[in-house]
Design a protein that fits this description.
Layout: H1 4-25, H2 40-52, H3 57-82, H4 87-99, H5 104-115, H6 126-140, H7 144-154, H8 163-181, H9 188-195, H10 197-202, H11 204-212
């Protein structure tokens, strides 16, 4: 059963992402509108984990195939623009670990461990994203406190620690909790976007590439 408010929240994250990428294409910095848009990535990763809970192996593998296709299409453009693989590449790592059916806290610890070894060709390192997704799973299973503590104590002091992403992960948590409290909250346009995140994610990159290269 879908949770309308979570789809709404994911649609909101997509809007933030569009805004962030438009500002980026126009060479705007954090103080020129990109600070609040730092919420987009944590929301995506937390909700990825939240929606992983309860999925069957068949469902996981089907979605994994869709994710691979989306990552291939988006990175045709994203890698040319940045020299990095986008967040979907890190989501693929999360799905592989989830298909392997590793215990929740193992996922969190793997995320913290991998974060100590920065991988320069990822836009958002797998370690951070694995920990965020594990935290999203833990939120749904009411087991979030230990993973929150692990992240707060470990991630900022590691070489791969993205302090801003970590801070905004904690700022995103109340939004996810509010969505749990009001599960029927919805706004049709945002809910539609939230129900089709991969499609709305991929479609932006040809446009961004055309803008950056002067075709638009």
């Amino acid at each position: 059963m879908r949770i309308e408010s979570m789809d709404l929240l994911r649609g909101f994250a997509i809007l933030l992402m569009y805004w962030d990428h438009w500002l980026w294409i126009n060479d705007k910095g954090l103080l020129e509108g990109r600070l609040i848009t730092r919420l987009a990535e944590p929301l995506f990763a937390l909700l990825l984990g939240y929606f992983l809970v309860g999925r069957t192996q068949e469902s996981l593998k089907r979605r994994f195939g869709q994710l691979l296709l989306a990552a291939l299409l988006s990175n045709i453009f994203f890698y040319q623009l940045t020299g990095h693989f986008d967040i979907l590449a890190s989501f693929i790592v999360v799905y592989v670990l989830r298909i392997l059916n590793l215990p929740l806290y193992w996922l969190g610890m793997i995320g913290v461990f991998l974060n100590a070894f920065p991988i320069s060709w990822f836009d958002y390192g797998p370690g951070l994203v694995i920990w965020q997704a594990a935290l999203g799973m833990a939120l749904r299973e009411k087991k979030a406190l230990p993973l929150m503590a692990i992240g707060l104590l470990a991630l900022p002091f590691q070489p791969g620690g993205d302090l801003l992403a970590l801070i905004f992960t904690y700022l995103a948590l109340p939004l996810v909790k509010l969505a749990e409290i009001f599960p029927d909250l919805k706004l049709p346009v945002l809910n539609f976007m939230g129900k089709h995140p991969l499609e709305f994610y991929v479609v932006q990159f040809p446009v961004l590439w055309a803008m950056k290269t002067g075709l638009l």
